């Protein structure tokens, strides 16, 4: 736990990345696996994570992300895009995966499968979209923690136009909408922000014990 807390104190929202430093294939795979193992409501993971390495695409995204330099300077650009709806076929695929992974009969899951579909069908389109978007934040948390352990910098971003990013990447046609951006790489030695003391609420101000 001490190492975990040290990593949390080490990490910060990097403002200037060293564009000459790239994440190794092994470390990138570790980050992807950390995201893949993230918790999610029902375990559905109703999102995709688009990893943008293409320079031209990143140049197009930067202006619709408030012109933030991290978009093009970081080693990798992760875009979390949630599904705008959850179809019954997607739920069926989820239960097929449970059946195969745990080697149990699919019909033994029928009750839970029906329950899940019923709960999802109760939600409005807006509620589903909001719920799905929240799941991407759980995945981002795993990315932040895993990257800190590897001493890789991550800057989470909400400052961008989802509609424009959707258009650039063709996400609408995939039933997806961008919810979060994370730039991933290595801090530049000239980034003064890394020397700032971390500012957080005190334990007394943050927690309520009942």
Concise account of the structure shown:
This protein is α+β, with helices and mostly antiparallel strands and 210 residues long.
Which structural traits does this protein have?
alpha+beta, 210 residues, 4-stranded antiparallel sheet, globular
Care to describe what's here?
The chain is of the alpha+beta class and 210 residues long. 46% of the residues lie in helices and 14% in strands. The protein contains nine helices and four strands, in the order H-H-E-H-H-E-H-H-H-E-H-E-H. The protein has helices spanning 2-10, 25-36, 55-61, 70-73, 88-102, 110-121, 125-149, 162-169, 203-206; strands at 47-52, 76-83, 153-157, 176-185. A four-stranded antiparallel sheet has the order 1-2-4-3, sandwiched between helices. Helix 2 (25-36) crosses helix 7.
The residue fraction in helices comes out at 40-55%
Strand content: 5-15%
Spatial sequence of strands, sheet with the most strands: 1-2-4-3
Task: Summarize the main sheet.
Answer: 4 strands, antiparallel
* Order of helix and strand elements from N to C terminus: HHEHHEHHHEHEH
Q: Compute the CA-based radius of gyration.
A: 19 Å
Based on secondary structure, the structural category is alpha+beta
Span from first to last CA?
Answer: 25 Å
Number of helices: 9
Give the tally of β-strands: 4
Layout of SSEs?
Elements (H helix, E strand, L loop, with lengths): L1 H9 L14 H12 L10 E6 L2 H7 L8 H4 L2 E8 L4 H15 L7 H12 L3 H25 L3 E5 L4 H8 L6 E10 L17 H4 L4
Antiparallel strand pairs: 1-2, 2-4, 3-4
Helix pairs in contact: 2-7
